[in-house]
Design brief:
It is a single chain. By secondary structure, this protein is of the alpha+beta class. The protein has 2 domains: 145 residues, Sandwich (Jelly Rolls); 88 residues, Orthogonal Bundle (Arc Repressor Mutant, subunit A), CATH 1.10.10. It is 48% helix and 16% strand. It contains 11 helices and 8 strands. The strands form 2 sheets. Strands 1-7-2-5-8 form a 5-stranded antiparallel beta sheet. Strands 4-3-6 form a 3-stranded antiparallel beta sheet, with no helix packed on it. β3 and β4 form a beta hairpin. α9 packs across α10.
Length: 271
């Protein structure tokens, strides 16, 4: 992938060198919208594997750990998008907020040939701006993003209009609070008090969207970050334990093994 900094977006062709087809698990601070129209392979996104069966789409969010393993004959594009561009558009902001941690959302889908042709036209039109990032290009990238998401939505099982549910604002507030506090605040009381809601109400809101209770969601968020660090970082298990605010490395190892069936060291070696 290009190392050039981009202000809002960058579109690049999927590369097929041996190195590019065997990248280690990694993550970014921006979104990546993958579009394959040839080849085969797999795409692991936060430890969930999706088959690359062109034409197909895969959406990777900021901080998500992912790894693409695609064949030499693969063809397609990746659009990299800064979060600022998403939050500036109400439709995109609502949808991206809604799909975070949603139990029914599928980040990887196979699309129809007709959708492939329409999307390819959009991507090729966007490429004519040569990643300019100027005012005219922003209209083009927003149009392409809206079209990409509209296709992705066709393959979801979520109910129409769910992303406008009034409780989504509470759920979004919860997500933001979790992201800023989950390392130090691992219990539910902190979140219910900060948000001025009962545990029963919060449990109901979280369960509808994730299939988990508030406590289960917090544990899963800690575990996800632990798995990301075990696989992606060069930190020792001891360093990871302390960075996740565990009092003792042994407590962290027991927690990790309880939820994955493996010690952190074994999980790292196997992955």
């Amino acid at each position: 992938m290009s190392k050039k900094e981009f202000k809002y977006y960058e579109i690049v062709r999927i590369k097929t060198t041996t190195q590019d087809r065997n990248l280690d698990p990694h993550r970014h601070l921006y979104y990546e919208l993958f579009f394959f129209f040839a080849g085969t392979g797999s795409h692991i996104i936060d430890f969930e594997e999706f088959d690359i069966q062109p034409p197909s789409l895969q959406l990777v969010g900021p901080h998500q750990l992912h790894q693409v393993k695609h064949s030499k004959d693969s063809e397609g594009y990746v659009i990299k998008v800064q979060p600022l561009l998403i939050t500036s558009n109400p439709f995109l902001k609502d949808y991206f907020n809604f799909i975070q941690y949603n139990q029914h959302f599928k980040a990887g889908v196979q699309i129809s040939k007709q959708e492939q042709e329409l999307l390819l036209y959009n991507f090729n039109f966007l490429r004519t701006y040569n990643n300019d990032n100027g005012d005219q290009a922003i209209f083009a990238i927003l149009a392409t993003l809206n079209f990409y998401i509209s296709i992705l939505k066709n393959y979801q099982t979520m109910k129409e209009g769910d992303e406008q549910h009034p409780d989504n604002e509470i759920f979004q507030q919860f997500l933001e609070l979790v992201e800023s506090s989950y390392l130090k605040e691992k219990g539910t009381d902190f979140y219910t008090q900060k948000m001025a809601v009962s545990l029963a109400q919060l449990n109901n809101i979280v369960r509808i969207r994730t299939g988990m209770t508030t406590k289960q969601f917090l544990l899963k968020r800690i575990l996800l970050e632990a798995k990301r660090l075990v696989v992606h970082s060069t930190k020792s298990v001891k360093e990871i334990a302390y960075s996740l605010e565990f009092l003792e490395p042994a407590h962290f190892t027991n927690f990790f093994k309880k939820h994955t069936g493996k010690t952190p060291s074994k999980f790292r070696a196997d992955f």
